[in-house]
């Protein structure tokens, strides 16, 4: 399951190639989209991207954990965690690509 990691620069390059905007504008668009997603999540809003998935924030309460090395109990503070749920379409595309049934674009 090795592979390349998709970066912001890769996204900007894809926008540049497919849309034809200058590279600096393509990078700016990618940054604006990512910034808007982060801002929405910071406000506690859910972000749904059709055919991709949804991002949300989950509140986790305080609990007691255990240090795996020493076995000592330690409190874990309450926090907010980012959760992602892939859409059924995304799950199907990923599973199809494993079996070679990819319907390329």
TrEMBL record:
Pfam families the record matches: Bac_DNA_binding
Gene Ontology molecular-function annotations: DNA binding; structural constituent of chromatin
The keyword DNA-binding appears for this protein: yes
Keywords: DNA recombination, DNA-binding, Transcription, Transcription regulation, Translation regulation
GO biological process: DNA recombination; positive regulation of metabolic process; regulation of DNA-templated transcription; regulation of translation
InterPro entries per UniProt: Hist_DNA-bd, Histone-like_DNA-bd_CS, IHF-like_DNA-bd_dom_sf, IHF_alpha
Metal-binding recorded as keyword: no
SMART domains, A to Z: BHL (SM00411)
GO cellular component, one term: cytosol
Summary of subunit composition and partner proteins: Heterodimer of an alpha and a beta chain.
Role summary: This protein is one of the two subunits of integration host factor, a specific DNA-binding protein that functions in genetic recombination as well as in transcriptional and translational control.
Family, as annotated: Belongs to the bacterial histone-like protein family.
Name under which the protein is recorded: Integration host factor subunit alpha
